[in-house]
Amino acid sequence: MAKPKSFDLLLLIAVNVIVAAILTSSPPSVAAAASPSSKWAPRFLGKFSRKTEQIRYETRNFSQRLDHFSFSENPRFSQRYLISTEHWVGPDRLGPIFLYCGNEGDIAWFAANTGFVWEIAPQFGAMVLFPEHRYYGKSIPYGSREEAYRNATTLAYLTAEQALADFAVLITELKRNFSAEDCPVVLFGGSYGGMLASWMRLKYPHIAIGALASSAPILQFEDVVPKEIFYDLVSNDFKRESTSCFNTIKESWDVITAEGEKNDGLLQLTKTFRICGKLKSTEDLMDWLDSAYSYLAMVNYPYPSNFLMPLPGHPIREVCKKIDGSPVGTSTLERIFRGISVYYNYTGDVECFKLDDDPHGMDGWNWQACTEMVMPMSSGRDTSMFPAYDFNLSAYQEQCWKDFGVRPRPRWITTEFGGHDIKADLERFGSNIIFSNGLLDPWSGGGVLQNISESIVALVAPEGAHHIDLRASTNEDPDWLVDLRATEIKLIKGWIGDYYQRKRKVSDI
Ligand SMILES: *[C@@H]1O[C@H](CO)[C@@H](O)[C@H](O)[C@H]1NC(C)=O
Ligand SMILES: *[C@@H]1O[C@H](CO)[C@@H](O)[C@H](O)[C@H]1NC(C)=O
Ligand SMILES: *[C@@H]1O[C@H](CO)[C@@H](O)[C@H](O)[C@H]1NC(C)=O
Ligand SMILES: *[C@@H]1O[C@H](CO)[C@@H](O)[C@H](O)[C@H]1NC(C)=O
Ligand SMILES: *[C@@H]1O[C@H](CO)[C@@H](O)[C@H](O)[C@H]1NC(C)=O
Ligand SMILES: *[C@@H]1O[C@H](CO)[C@@H](O)[C@H](O)[C@H]1NC(C)=O
Q: Listed GO molecular functions (predicted)?
């Protein structure tokens, strides 16, 4: 299929799904999920959500260089960061600084969805800092989004390396301003932010003493992990609920294609799936469906949540109940419609579904996916419930050239940060990183799932989904989640304790 799609966090070029006619109380959702037929990686989670918690912080700006790696004169830009010193015990007592590595979206949204960091700051006496990633939210160079996203020349400074350098420069200057040079910095991050946190610990060990990298697929590059793993994991999430649910979804693609080829087939599909306006192609419908399945796997949390969409607990179980539980004689397409309504219409507020027909909008993650973040993805013939697809690098590259006038460098990330022999490298040259992953999360396929050394630790939650550990605690948290967070706290305390001990020894000399 020629049409490209997109990924948010990490995802292929995401298909932007806009659910129309939602009551104004609901946030707009840009679901950008993977499509196996597309050249793009699926996206990490979307960008919009309401703040649920009252989090107190101050919003500040910091003037950053556009290019940290040259001495050419470029205009500077204003990086937004959120800061709270409410619980910080201050420089004299070497109060720690918790720095969340902002990822591909509005930093206020990540702050609101990273309750863990806010909840533990008081017991550590820590300052909390959420710097925004350049080119996202309000941290836009060249004065406006339109200018910044104009072309490959203006987008050239949107890279992970520049973002890490932003964090490094900001924290260094901030510490100097507070006379807090000796305060230890601990990094946090989820998804792409988790990748940044772990990479920052490796690249700037003198700036941060440790990193909690949650659901960070740092191995989802080149051939480090099988290309099929992402879609296989999504598929397994459905299969573990019910084989017939998996089979119905697997069969549905051919049914949709056949229906679409009939006279008036697209009209019929429009009616069956209650789409606003008229469906333009079966591909648009298929993209919309596979977006939902991929996101469902990411947010397959054990309790009701409202991360991307309002959803019940164990949402995949609920989808499969609808697909399997429809009366005998219900058609495959009607079953799919009922199932998918759990995702797109859980609140029952949606009058009709609007499928965005322009998924190519200039989007920061699409640019990153077209430059450094090339995560090859295929869909296997038997193990996946999605249509079979083999990743095609030439097609991917052609599309990037068309969209941005840029050529992806699929080997750059592993050259810059490693990946091929991560265990040996991290064992020798790294320390103090927690890689946490939930095995229900399709991104866990590209995660570090093995303990590497005494202090580079993999925490694996078989029942966990996308960075659930970073979310605020709830009354419904299962025991394993409570234990997981307790282990993380213990490990972080250990890093800080070691740091203080070293400081004391040095000052004794
Ligand atoms: C930060 O900068 C943005 C524009 O770059 C501006 O709109 C905003 O008012 C500034 N905020 C503060 C707190 O200075
Ligand atoms: C991008 O736009 C700027 C400003 O219009 C222009 O100077 C530059 O040559 C353009 N670059 C490319 C690669 O088209
Ligand atoms: C540090 O202080 C200077 C001078 O007051 C200010 O311009 C700068 O923005 C501060 N930097 C940070 C990171 O807060
Ligand atoms: C959404 O759910 C409500 C309540 O079940 C229903 O009345 C409505 O028709 C559904 N919308 C669509 C587009 O299916
Ligand atoms: C990969 O994409 C290129 C360019 O679009 C195309 O010519 C080629 O046939 C594709 N390869 C396969 C195996 O589909
Ligand atoms: C790694 O070690 C920690 C203890 O530091 C342990 O809790 C965890 O279960 C181990 N992880 C794996 C994947 O074995």
A: dipeptidyl-peptidase activity; serine-type exopeptidase activity
